[in-house]
Amino acid sequence: MGLTVCGASAADFDSSEDITVVSREDGSGTRGAFIELFGIQEEQDGEKVDMTTDEANITNSTSVMMTTVADDEYAIGYISLGSLDDSVKAVRIDGAEATVDDINDGTYKIFRPFNIATKGDVSDAAQDFINYIMSKDGQAVVEENKYIAVGEPEDYTSNGAEGKVVVAGSSSVSPVMQKLKEAYEKVNDKVEIEIQTSDSTTGMQNTIDGICDIGMASRELKDSETEAGLTATVIANDGIAVVVNNDNPIDELTSDQVKSVFTGETTTWADLEK
Fold first, then answer.
1. How far is Cα 88 from Cα 103, in angstroms, rounded to an integer?
2. How many C-beta atoms lie closer than 10 Å to residue 99's C-beta?
3. Confidence bin at 151 (pLDDT 50/70/90)
4. Domains 4-111+240-273 and 113-237 share a fold
5. Cβ distance 130 to 234 under 8 Å?
6. The pTM is what?
7. Tell me: the pLDDT tens digits for 65-123?
8. What is the DSSP code string of 30-90?
9. Which CATH superfamily hosts domain 4-111+240-273?
10. Where are the domains of the chain?
11. CATH number for the domain running over 113-237
């Protein structure tokens, strides 16, 4: 199945226009997962090489990605499913919708883990927050915010900790972490949670360097990160939605079409109709 359009906007959409490819910055966990899942990352001489076109516009956060696509009728990008709102439109991939239901039933295959990372022993306050995240209450927050819960959560019981916890990293994980912070501070107001949003790689490095207590990554940890002493815990699974402008009549693409667009092989919307 190829490109699908709906009739309402098709007459106003000029498919001869160039596709505006919008990608995330190097270090973004969402970019790392996206290029791996769509085969945009290729192995050459034993090295994994990101084949994203040099013509791509680079954005440095989920919110900037969404604004960029929302402002350009001919743009295409990708975001965390949990961050998806009506400012952009998610297209179906290989016939499946970017929804929790389609991920759970195995039809939508574009998803990745949300990880938190720690190094060595953590403070009582950090451990208490982690215990909350992985509890029934914490995983309920995950599900309420359009992410996929993990594990077999148990009831939360506070260890009575006090203090401050700094959490840093992925802008994709940050929205659900903010919700978890707000819920946690209602049950333990003696711990202050500070969230610093950047990208997955920066979050992991800050955790290694002891700048933060907990790092956030919207991807699997790299070997170099675990070798540096980080331990990862999956707190949720999250789909990656391929998004276009709301005025774009396209409803569906195949995985191969997405790859061809982001590697620069396909450069106009009309090329996708061939």
1. 20
2. 18
3. confident
4. yes
5. no
6. 0.82
7. 999 999 999 999 999 999 999 999 999 999 999 999 999 999 999 999 999 999 999 99
8. HHHHHHHHTT-EEEETTEEEE---TTPEEESSHHHHHHHHHT-TTEEEEEEGGG--TTSEE
9. Periplasmic binding protein-like II (3.40.190.10)
10. 4-111+240-273, 113-237
11. 3.40.190.10
